[in-house]
Amino acid sequence: MKLGRSLVDARKAYDLAESLGRAALAHWPRFDRARIKVHSNRHTLMRWRDQGDLVELSVHEAFLPHPTDVLATVDREPLAWERLQKVPRHGKPPKLRTKGAVHDLRPLFEAEVQRVQSVSPFEHEAHVGWGRWPGRPPARSLRLGSCIGGPPQVVRIHPVLDHDTVPDWFVGFVLYHELLHLRFPPVRQGRRRIVHPKSFLQAERRHPRYAEATAWERAEVKVLLARVRARFRR
């Protein structure tokens, strides 16, 4: 059993983790041992590994009081994961910069929130801002946006898009894409983690500039990559 240093009440977390371990062994009799890792990471909320006679579960501390849903999520029950997603998780919103040199994310974000709500309504309270430049040059791909399910929910956009050659509607499409991740989180199929489930892809195609945005990205990705790499040659 491993407890993260940032836990507020380590003793309570230890007891709940021990209870989760016992529940896991009762739920999966094929395992002889269970290892529970507890964390407060907002990026990867839960993962599990089958290591022969050992099952290893890494879970966010907020999920510990919900062992039934944790185990059901590992068994690929989507409703269980939806319930866990609604469990409050503590955290302060980070300080984010919305106004860039060219694009102001705030009005673009608000417009895309309304668009997502018209396609598939959901409760949200997301924060948005420009991300940081990477610490090393990218290889072949570029992640133009990222999101954290929270709470607080946070959407960040790669600063390479804050450029006068990048249309504001394309930045809006990237925001829409990240908001859809909050609406349609990844699902598990066996040991696979499906980042873009069918519901996500269907909603994404309903964006009025979907075809234009995907075509623009294919045509300009090399330019964007070169712009990021150029920062490391200064």
Summarize the structure.
The protein is built from seven helices and nine strands, in the order βαβββαααβββαββαα. The protein has 234 residues and is an alpha/beta fold.
Features of the shown structure:
single chain, 234 residues, alpha/beta, Zincin-like, four-stranded mixed β-sheet, three-stranded mixed β-sheet, 7 helices, 9 strands, 18% strand, elongated, disordered N terminus
Walk me through this protein's architecture.
Helix 4 packs across helix 5. The chain has two domains: 84 residues; 129 residues, Metalloproteases ("zincins"), catalytic domain (Zincin-like). Helix 1 links the parallel strand 1 and strand 2. The chain is built from seven helices and nine strands; from the N terminus they run E-H-E-E-E-H-H-H-E-E-E-H-E-E-H-H. The protein is 40% helix and 18% strand. With 234 residues, it is of the alpha/beta class.
Mean pLDDT: 88
Q: Please report the first level of CATH classification, the CATH class of the largest domain.
A: Alpha Beta
User: CATH homologous superfamily of the largest domain?
Assistant: Metalloproteases ("zincins"), catalytic domain
Uncertain residue ranges: 1-8
Q: What characterizes the major β-sheet?
A: 4 strands, mixed
Shape: elongated
Helix content: 25-40%
How would the blueprint of this fold be written?
Layout lengths: L1 E2 L6 H18 L5 E7 L6 E6 L2 E7 L6 H8 L3 H8 L19 H15 L6 E5 L14 E4 L4 E5 L10 H16 L3 E3 L2 E3 L3 H7 L5 H21 L4
Parallel strand pairs: 1-2, 2-4, 5-7
Antiparallel strand pairs: 3-4, 6-7, 8-9
Helix pairs in contact: 2-3, 4-5
